[in-house]
User: Which sequence fits this backbone?
């Protein structure tokens, strides 16, 4: 995810003076991956800010949080409902709210409010694995419309409904027999890249 | 050497990185540096075969991660791992390699000529920055053989057998060195063709605290070629 963001939004191309990115992290694994992404964005010289309202008690995810804090990545205490504030402050939003595992209703409430705000922002959204709030197979009606989708391991069914600008797959770590077993037929990754852009949907 | 150990400690205790996280990023850097300097098309052997020799500690773990990524990059690695720590981290890394069909050699090729015939590159993942004192067997004999190998050798972090600060004039002379986090003092004695920096995970505050003065990495690359 963190590699594809610079590919989709290279530093020199950003409209705002500072390379600010808002990373919105949900309560489960998708959010944890967002934390890792934020840390790497910081290493890549972006200025990420994290909104992580419902924190997991999983020790691994708590360590990810500490790593971000110790990298001086600010954590917002609330998400402005005034959408213009977000549009003005950041170049892009990373949506790491809900992923393919989002079955449980628990944890959905704070997410519902966040997603409602995200639906109205005008800056680009990069969604991690599944655009948050979409049904993992059927897709969405009236949900968020990300500009960039980064599918993890392999695209999910709902990715067929993705209409944004760029779709990346980050799955170069998959052992060959897993790829074969699930008939994933991934595209060739260029050189030593860990993400590959799939052909644009339009 | 003490500074390197202090930085490592701080990454784990203050920053709460796990060994797994940093080892994965380190191993990935090594494989990436190798892919840049020795692309599969450059091999004179019929397949891009690589021998990865893993030592008994974390440097060996870095080697296991490196082997796995080399496989994903299209190489044909084989691992020699004679002394395996009884810890879940290393057992997991070993399993990951085995399940990717990376062979683990039952014995070390005794002759340098044999290694040169079969492999286009050797990865030295025997000893790292914590190495001190005498070299225990079987690694003494292994290093002896490696010194007679003509295939290029890529060392992870510190050429094995070298004093971490002073180097070793009559020791291993690798063609490539991948310094992790920051170059160790011994790197000043490195005389091979390719010196890469890897391990792009150093928090800016830590870099400042230890005045590492690391040059900037290009774009989103996880390695930087220093020479």
Assistant:
């Amino acid at each position: 995810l963190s590699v594809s963001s610079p590919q989709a939004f290279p530093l020199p191309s950003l409209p705002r003076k500072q390379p600010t990115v808002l990373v919105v992290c949900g309560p489960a694994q998708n959010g944890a991956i967002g934390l890792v992404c934020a840390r790497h964005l910081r290493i890549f010289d972006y200025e990420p800010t994290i909104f992580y309202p419902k924190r997991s008690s999983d020790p691994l995810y708590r360590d990810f949080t500490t790593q971000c804090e110790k990298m001086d990545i600010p954590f917002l205490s609330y998400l402005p409902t005034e959408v213009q504030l977000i549009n003005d402050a950041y170049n892009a939003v990373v949506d790491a709210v809900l992923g393919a595992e989002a079955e449980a209703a628990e944890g959905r409430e704070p997410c519902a409010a966040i997603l409602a705000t995200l639906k109205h922002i005008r800056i680009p959204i990069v969604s991690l694995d599944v655009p948050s709030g979409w049904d993992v197979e059927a897709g969405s009606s009236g949900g968020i419309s990300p500009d960039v989708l980064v599918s993890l391991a392999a695209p999910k069914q709902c990715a067929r409904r993705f209409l944004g600008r760029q779709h990346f797959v980050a799955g170069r770590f998959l052992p060959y027999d897993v790829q074969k077993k699930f008939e994933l037929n991934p595209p060739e990754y260029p050189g030593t890249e860990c993400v590959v852009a799939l052909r644009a949907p339009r | 050497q003490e500074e390197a150990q202090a930085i490592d400690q701080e990454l784990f205790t203050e920053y709460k990185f796990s060994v797994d996280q940093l080892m994965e990023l380190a191993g990935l850097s090594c494989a990436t540096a190798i892919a840049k300097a020795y692309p599969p098309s450059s091999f004179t052997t019929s397949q891009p075969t690589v021998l990865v020799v893993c030592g008994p500690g974390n440097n060996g773990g870095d080697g296991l991660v490196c082997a796995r990524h080399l496989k994903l990059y299209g190489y044909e690695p084989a691992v020699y791992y004679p002394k395996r720590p009884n810890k879940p981290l290393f057992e997991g890394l070993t399993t990951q390699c085995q399940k990717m069909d990376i062979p683990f050699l039952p014995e070390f090729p005794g002759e340098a000529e044999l290694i040169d015939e079969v492999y286009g590159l050797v990865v030295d993942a025997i000893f790292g920055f914590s190495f001190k004192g005498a070299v225990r067997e079987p690694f003494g004999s292994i290093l002896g053989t490696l010194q007679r190998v003509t295939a290029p050798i890529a060392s992870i972090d510190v050429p094995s057998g070298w004093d971490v600060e002073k180097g070793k004039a009559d020791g291993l002379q690798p063609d490539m060195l991948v310094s992790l986090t920051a170059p160790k003092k011994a790197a000043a004695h490195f005389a091979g063709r390719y010196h890469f920096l890897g391990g792009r995970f150093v928090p800016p505050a830590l870099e400042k605290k230890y005045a590492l003065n690391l040059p900037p990495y290009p774009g989103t690359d996880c390695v930087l070629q220093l020479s």
